[in-house]
Amino acid sequence: MSGTDRLVAELTRTRREAPEKIAEALQRRRRRPLLGPSGRLFLVAADHPARGVLGAGRDPLAMADRGEMLHRLLVALGRPGVDGVLATPDVVEDLALLGALDEKVVFGSMNRGGLAGAVYELDDRFSAYTAEAITSAGLDGGKMMIRVAGDDPGSARTLVACAESISDLASRRLPAMLEVFASRLNNGRAENTDDPDELGRAVQVVSGLGTTSAYTWLKLPVMSELERVLRATTLPVVLLGGDPGDRVDAVYRSWEEAMMHPQVAGLVVGRTLLYPEHGDVARAVDEAASIVTARP
């Protein structure tokens, strides 16, 4: 039996025979402040599978093997400079049982109901964490995705649901990390635009959601003319890593340039680091960490 097979077998046995150990592991974990000495935040994202996104690089099913994904997450979380993880309850709980969340920042992913490629993709329902559940599990914040679109009523429903969750998190003094896109329908399918003016407008809309913005952070894609987008807000921003394909070097350079802007406070990356083209997770994570911790 391989190491990943043993890992999955042990997790499955615990879930089957002693599910109460999940809550115990979460309550037992040692917590830390949101920001470390660098004043920035570097998280590894692992909430893609819950939205039906399994591909990374040239492999359309890279994230389909849960044992392999967890193994890669353990490597990533063990590297210096990594502050924590952003994930759905199933992944957070696996990592808690594995003892990988001590002294780590943990953001719970909240709305995963807008499945990739579905006709209802922009109606992004809250199907994972709630603010109450995040508090109960002792997590450090909540993340939600908001795609602002004018041609699908599902976008409006998502805006309202996100506003309620932002307020709920803020009432508990927990940060809400809002992943923002300007979107539209194309032949019935959702697509995100890379127009900086449209994304800037979406940022303005999303920044006003909820009863207070005191605990609101934004998670934005790196794009050309990002500076124009950033002018739209005073909220802290973390960069969205995305899946760069074969443009890894260019993407790393774009992160480095974007980190120079005063609003940018960190980086949240998933597939790029967990499934790098060269196969070395530790190397990919270390290279990204050096960008986050470098001072302008």
In short:
The chain contains eleven helices and nine strands. It has helices at residues 3-17, 20-28, 66-77, 89-97, 131-136, 153-171, 196-207, 226-230, 248-258, 271-274, 281-293, and strands at 41-46, 84-87, 105-109, 141-148, 176-186, 189-192, 216-221, 237-240, 264-269. It starts with a helix and ends with a helix.
Walk me through the topology:
Elements: H1 3-17, H2 20-28, E1 41-46, H3 66-77, E2 84-87, H4 89-97, E3 105-109, H5 131-136, E4 141-148, H6 153-171, E5 176-186, E6 189-192, H7 196-207, E7 216-221, H8 226-230, E8 237-240, H9 248-258, E9 264-269, H10 271-274, H11 281-293
Helix pairs in contact: 1-3, 2-4
Sum up the structure in keywords.
globular, 296 residues, TIM Barrel, eight-stranded parallel beta barrel, alpha/beta, single chain
What does this structure look like?
This protein has 296 residues and is an alpha/beta fold. The chain has a single domain (3-293), classed as Alpha-Beta Barrel (TIM Barrel), CATH 3.20.20. It is 39% helix and 18% strand. The chain contains 11 helices and 9 strands. The chain has an 8-stranded parallel barrel, surrounded by 5 helices. Strand 5 (176-186) and strand 6 form a beta hairpin. Helix 1 crosses helix 3 (66-77) and helix 2 (20-28) crosses helix 4 (89-97). The model has no long low-confidence stretch (mean pLDDT 95).
